[in-house]
Amino acid sequence: MLVPDDLRYSDTHEWIKVEGDIGTVGISDHAQSELGDIVFIELPSSSVITERQARVATVESVKAASDIYSPASGEVFETNAELETNPGLVNFDPYGAGWLFKLKLTKPEELQQLRDSKGYEALIAK
Amino acid sequence: MAGAADENMSKRTPLFHEHSKLGAKMIEFGGWQMPVLYTSIVEEHRAVRKSAGVFDISHMGQLELEGAGAEQALNNILTNNVASLREGEGQYTFMLNENGGVIDDLIVYRRQQSRYLLVVNAAKMDEDIAWIRSHLGGGIAFSNQSLRYGAVALQGPRASEIMRRFDRAIATELPARNCVIEVASGDLSLTIARTGYTGEDGFEIFFPAQFATELWTRLLIAGKELGLCPAGLGARDTLRMEVCYPLNGADLSTQRTPFEAGLGIFVDLTKTNFLGRSALLAQRKSGLRQRLVAVKGAERCPPLRAHYPVFDNGKQIGELTSGTLSPTLGRSIGLGYVDVEFAVPGKEIEIEIRGRKYPATVEKKPLYKRAC
Questions:
Q1: For residue A58, which residues of chain B lie inside 8 Å, CB to CB?
Q2: Of A42, A58, A62, the CB nearest to B325
Q3: Which residue, among B250, B249, B246, B272, has the nearest Cα to B259 in the 3D structure?
Q4: Phi and psi at residue B215, to the nearest 5°
Q5: B267-301 pLDDT, tens per residue?
Q6: Does A11 touch chain B (CB under 8 A)?
Q7: What 3-state class would DSSP assign to B141?
Q8: Where are the extended beta strands (E) located within B83-187?
Q9: Which of A40, A43, A62 to mutate: most B Cβ within 10 Å?
Q10: pLDDT of residue B300
Q11: Model confidence at B1, in pLDDT bands (50, 70, 90)?
């Protein structure tokens, strides 16, 4: 399973890439693999304000729907429109073309509570 | 994400090690550790529609009845008419409680004049056995062969071609639809039925557990060039939903009769007596309140799931019992019970998903029909 070093990870298997006060969010390679073929994604509307650990999106395989929790607080300002027609991008490229949404971070100090790649590898190795 | 299976409590089929070797993802189902997928539910589903898939169905229960009074006993316990079966024929049927509710749906095969095989759902097997025992007269040998036997389902348009490649010697003996034969193939003794749960042509093959690995391996080799792949419970579920075959515990329950499920053709009310008959007659007289319908979401509708409420003009008219996103149709589909006045193909309805209502329509069953 790929676990890139430049991302932070939540215990619920979301990743966030931080650039200045902007966070890009997706789900981990481990998460997409556990879910299987992703066939539908419900993204938040732009301008939604979310808290850390609040449910913001839903990713669905043929078998089940899984809630996606925001790894940080902030305001959603962009979502990945490609996923509407091609949700399988999350399977093929979970850390790239399969990103879910971008946030303007309001509490950057929260990022300390997320795992680094080593910590996340330990979590999924359990 | 879904919780991990409690793997310590559940049984392993004789093909467990084959599934491990193939890297299957395992789940607990009906008390068994079963493969939910090997590579991808969608790919396995498509393989079955296009070529063929092979499923481990060893979890299903195999019950045998033998004796002069077996026909009469089964006709009392089951809704369909066993007397209409000739040797080597099978039929889909129900086992009902006194209220007409479905204990289980199953296939009964008449293997010989007075010898029957019942193939029942894994999760209901203990209940089935207790029910049969309590309604069986004397002089009938009743045995549970489930642990002695393994079973696989070979399903798909190329299934019979794969059987011919599997063993040319049995090619001419392959059973007709809903029929069953017993054959030897090399060292293997096989019971082959032409039945399935996918809406495609195919076979369900029963065999003594010690032959499991050899049969599985030989089948995969026989079908390799034709696109055969192992398929798990995930694809089995999406395939059966497209053809609107009910799943007991989801679309069928002791709270629903075969009439409500739209499966009255498997009930023979001309039989003078069987368990649940008087309740069914009463229901036929009073009329149905709800019926099981197939539904299809409009474009962009999220995958449908069991328990989503169904609405008409803001009023709840029912609830889904199964659902998915159909890999073949590319649309959200489901099965559910709605009030009879809305159980009409073409009727526009709404389905509530995560607090939002999405347009959908009631559809004619099945949602998918194979090209003949």
A1: 302, 354
A2: A62
A3: B246
A4: -65, -50
A5: 999 999 999 999 999 999 999 999 999 999 999 99
A6: no
A7: strand
A8: 89-96, 102-112, 115-120, 141-144, 149-155, 180-185
A9: A62
A10: 92
A11: very low
Q: Which residue from B164, B168, B126 is spatially nearest to B144, judged by alpha carbons?
A: B126
Best mutation target among B42, B247, B351 (most A Cβ atoms within 10 Å) is B42
A11: left (phi over 0), alpha (psi -120 to 50) or beta: alpha
For residue B3, pLDDT over 60 is answered with no
- The CATH class of the B4-56+147-242 domain is alpha beta
CATH topology of domain A8-125: OB fold (Dihydrolipoamide Acetyltransferase, E2P) (2.40.50)
The segment(s) of chain B belonging to CATH 2.40.30.110 are 289-363
**Residue position matching structure tokens 């070979």:** B154
| B103 has pLDDT over 50 | yes
The whole-angstrom separation of Cα B241 and Cα B3 is: 24
B289-363 under CATH 2.40.30.110, yes or no: yes
Contacts of B40 in chain A (CB under 8 A): 36-37
Q: Model's pTM, two decimal places?
A: 0.95
> How much is the pLDDT for B2?
37
Mean pLDDT of A1-23: 97
